[in-house]
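Section 3.1 - Work completed
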Amino acid sequence: MSKKDYIQEMLDLSNENVDRKLYEECFKYGLMTTITSSKFLKESISKNERINMLEWVKNMTYSETIATIFNEGHKLNESDLKKHEAKWKTFLKYSLAMLAGGALVASVHQGSLSVASTSYRKATDSMFQAFNYSFTSKKELGDHYANQAAKYAKIGDKSLNVAKNIEDNAPAYFISAALLSALTYFLYRRMTDPCRKQCGNRIFSTTKEKVCMYTCEIKSIENMINKIKKDMGQCSSTPYPTICRNKLEKELKRWNEKLKDAKEKLVKAKSKLNK
């Protein structure tokens, strides 16, 4: 490996670690938001047990957080991690309304039906070929097309089952509340990146730095709120508009609370600055 290739590989690894650190922060935020806001958990377990759950999430490794978000907590190897990271990056390309309103679910459903239809057609064509060759001296070609027909039929059955499962259990295929919260937090973190550069450093120990950061955060939160409101306007064009609005209204409520909290912190910081 050349020196140039080695340096590039090290840079790629560094960027990947930076990305994973941010993803981990977002996934933990999503999980902790779900724990603190879940009506079911509040009614089922004690406050101390919920606090213990929050501590458990805080101490999770990156692989544990992504396994919990995407794979029901089952362990993942490096290859599986990258597959789920790719899925996460795909989600980031879509509007919140499309994700909350099941547009991706509808897309997968339609895609599965399309694959099933194409596979069954190919299976039928192959069966005709197998039948025709069965009356000739080229029976090995008949066997080939028969095997091919069976393969296509199997693909068709599998795709049709995916479509049927989505029809029967559509809500289960929606992205989770934790993942939706993680996505909104990721967008917010990207919005606040300029704040961290603008305000000096990541510690913000002085009052002046805190005023700078809170001011910038407020603007970012307001931008986040506007984005959620804008995306809510798209809910009517999603396959499940009611579910879409309900999910985004919950997110909107959380970010309005964050805005109130940030404004209160800014007022306190400014009062100290003026003393």
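Second construct:
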Amino acid sequence: MTKVFPINPFSWPKCFSFGILGAMSHYQLIARVLTLINLLMSFQAFAAADLSLININELNQDNKSLNGGGVSLGHYGKYRFREFRSSTDIDLRYLNHKKNIEWEISELYTSVKSKKASVAIGRKRLSWFSQEDFWLLGQLSGRRNFDLLDEKSNGHWGLHFKGRQGALHFKFFVSYLYQPERNPGLDIEDGKVVTNSYWESLPPTRTTILGRVIPIHYTLEMDKWYKYALKKSLGLSLGHKGKDYGVDAFVIYKPEPRIRINAEAYYDGAIDRVVVNASPIVNHHMVYGLNSYLGKKNGRLSLGFLLVDPQASYGQDFSILDPLQLKESNRTFLSDYFKIEPRYEKEVIGSLNFQGHRKDFSYEFGLIKYFTDHELGTDDFYSNLIKWDTAVGGKLSWKPGRQFSMSGSYRFDLVKNDQLLNASMRIRLAQGWHTGVELGMIKAPRSSSYWSNYRTQDYLKAKLNYSF
């Protein structure tokens, strides 16, 4: 009778050394080898990383702070082990002239998928409104914001469920963890607002009182970190998909992607300064959406609507602002130079889009319309933002082969006459090596426009990157 030894994987080298393996049953050995091979074959991975040298040059003579170089590292990966799937999308950038590091984890999640359903845990994008990224809305998802015209969005931490039953499709999202937009980062040092970004628009540094120019001194009142991070979100989407058409509606209650700044200001005669006490708050909003499309990927017409309510509430467990906080948020300070007036106004947005795809060419053309009549603020520091009135735009991408690719986008506001142009080109030099350039230009003739704060931010960016 053959004696069979129990095998510990950590003792395998010793087993080989002393020939104990020969005492094993041949069937048991074959079973273990096949199990190991099956585990190895069950793991599949696709991962890519880009290491880039960057040089940014300003194109406006009155903006010298933009020139500089830096380095960026990006990682994108898809992993699969048996029924488990994971995804990562991480970016890091260092700009020498700012002496600061920008980073973002846009996606990081693990999911389990069956034929009719999937559950994901982690940070995953909510792609519930198709035109949000192109029009840089930042309502459903926060933006990465490495650059002013950066279209990349970030996901939401939480539990993501997706399922279907016949032609009916449904999605569910719930979270108890909130991460706002990280970039551009703002801080207050020695009474001044500073940023790690080369493009961020900063609040004024002085005002006037009785004809005298008075400096502004900023202070920041921060609460405990968990009072910003432990915020709740809940979303539901229902849709019907046919062969060449689809329609869906969704509602989501969550914190706004960007932290608001409430402030009160007063004149301090002892230091001859206007003191502005800024306090960050996390405001929840309700977002309702409706999407419909007709056609396939090679030619699809889409129509969508968004209604954003920053004063909505969902039950006692999902309260937004207590009366004291709401009173604080409505405080106003007026001067000849600036105004602090936080606003909580509803927004209604409609979009129409047509997109198509060919072998080496893709395109899309769109229209966006704000149906709200009120005027919200135009600055990033204090107010809610309206970026468009009635605008048209388009995007083209051409990749004839592995050696060369180029793309460009253009947006034009028919009412405010704002124009945004972004174009890029990439050339393959050798295996893994690429070089390219990117151009960004903004024209905003009206001071009431959101984009007027950035009209001196035209740039030309050169890159040399290695992919591995």
